[in-house]
Structure formats: structure tokens, C-alpha cells
Amino acid sequence: MCHDLLNDANLWRLLSDLDHQIAENVRSQGCACGGVLHSACYPRKPRGVARDLLGPDYERRLSFCCNQDGCRRRYTPPSVSYLGRFVYLGVIVTLVCAIEHGLSAKRRERLIKQLPIDRRTLNRWIYRWREQLPHTPWWSVLQGRLSSPLLPEALPGGLLGRIRGPDLTTRLAHFLMLLMPLTTTSCSYCPRVTIEPQKMQL
Predict the structure, then answer these.
(1) Average pLDDT over all residues of the chain
(2) pLDDT range class, residue 105, cuts 50, 70, 90
């Protein structure tokens, strides 16, 4: 199931389209100083998925810079593709950690070899999900939206399992939208983006 989804070009196209919509939303609202935002994308080399599936959009992170002298403030919009500076794409970091929860040692090793992901990298991801994220403002806001509490050790699979949708692709897209506040530090002062899961039930 995991590998079939990761090989689905429609998934990557959907996430890329969402990122472009989010970026256009941010760009159209301009800089806080009143300046115009110009494109200032920077290169990315995501791992874990074949380049021909991702396409050229994934070779850069959408970003903007104010055109006003004396400001030049950078705005890197939230993203559903990238989890901040993670080299692996958000879908992979989510799915691998969700699947890893409850796996036998043998199946865990097989998963690591198939992608391939270094064991230490996987351990760092799990630590971030279950030890670091629960201490962020994002977690406090999320808990307020949940119908019942979610234990940190259930992340990310427990949260993904609460999101309803017609298929895993849709649920993943909604899950990654929830993570958008964690995907950038240079756009915390951006006007709120309007692309959000519609009436998401958690």
C-alpha cells in the first residue's frame, strides 16, 4: 500500500498544485510593509521518490522576497510537500513513521531497506513526532480541535487515522495541511492562508 501510493504521480501532482495555490495566496497579499513579493525560490533535492514521478516543481521550494529597499523580507509560504528542512518529503516522513508504529523488528528492517532510510534517520523522525512536536503551540491548537485527546506516542498514525476522507490520498493531503504551521519559520507573520481542509472531522 505504501509503495503503491508513493508511486502514484497523481499524489505528487495534487500536493504540488496545493503548494502553488498556497504560495499564490501569500504572494497576492504582499509584504507587511506594503511592498510587492517577487519570486525568490531556492533549490531542493527531495529524497525517497523517483525524480520522474515528482517532476521539476519539486526541485525548488516556493519562496518570495519583498521588492522594497530597506525591507527585502523573505516569505517562504507554508507547504504540504516539505516539512521544513527535512530532506525527505512530508508524505514519506508521515507514512514511514505511521507504518513503523507496531511493526515487528523484521518488517521494520525491510521497510528501512526498501526506501532506503537510515535507521538513525527514522529514529530522529519518531523522536520529533513524539517528543518535540507535543511541546509546540501547534500541538496545543490541535488538541483543542480533537474530539478526544491524542497521546503523543500515537503520532503520526493516530492523527492520520482520525482524518476522514474518501481515500488515503485525500486524507494525507488534509493531514499535511494540518502540519502547515510547522513547515516554515520565515512566514509566521504572513496573512493567514485560506486553503484549509473543509469541515475536517478529527
Answers:
(1) 85
(2) low
pLDDT digits (tens, 9 = 90+) for 18-49: 999 999 999 998 998 999 999 999 999 988 88
Say if 147 falls within a structural domain: yes
The residue type at 73:
R
Q: What is the C-alpha separation between 179 and 158, in angstroms, rounded?
A: 14
d(CA 92, CA 197): 20
In a domain? residue 17: yes
Domain that holds residue 166: 2-182
CA distances from 23 to 26, 80, 98 (A): 5, 11, 28
Q: Pull the grid cell for residue 2.
A: 505504501
CA 62 to CA 57: how far, in whole Å? 9
* Amino acid at residue number 21: Q
| Angle (nearest 5°) at CA 178 between 120 and 9 | 70
Q: Which three cell numbers stand for residue 15?
A: 500536493
> How many folded domains does the chain comprise?
1
- Its pTM stands at 0.86
193 lies in some domain: no
What mean pLDDT comes out for the span 141-155?
Answer: 90
Nearest one of 63, 68, 62 to 32, comparing CA atoms: 68
- At residue 127, the pLDDT reads 93
Strands 64-66 and 37-39: antiparallel
Instruction: Confirm whether 9 is domain-assigned.
Output: yes
The Cα 137–Cα 142 span in angstroms is: 9
